[in-house]
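USER: Write out one fold?

ASSISTANT:
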Amino acid sequence: MKPECKKVDLLTLLITTFLGSGLLPKMPGTYGSFFAAAVVFPIALLLPFNLLSVFSIAIFFMAIPFVNKAMIQSQTKDPGWIVIDEVAGQWLAFAFIPFSFILEYPWLLLLGFTLFRFFDILKPLGIHQLEKLPKAWGVMADDMLGGLYAGVILTVFTNFVLM
């Protein structure tokens, strides 16, 4: 565990690292996104319709105080181990397609993951500008826009290729 993480209280650390996935070595954002995408399939099995937009927006707003607290306690600004932003963005990428598509074509999880990581890493089309928002708002908002872009592409793909 990174030394600055030891300064963060356990609940805040568990939330901001998505149950520790952000603490894995190298590429914490990729791990956070991967685990967020991986739990979409079981969620799709359990719920009758797609509520990922609600989950994503709820995580966005509920995570803001925890991300702020983690940055204050660790004395860092947007550390890589905070991956709750990737979770919110990744789930937004899957929010616009029916769960039946995910259950029938589970490879869509890989496509959605790849699209989200593309936008999260390269930050085109105004995504980079959102990082400049103050404190946790900048940490969280850029991933939401990346998830929205990935979601639009995934939705267009599913509507034109799979229907």
Notes: The chain has one domain: 3-161.
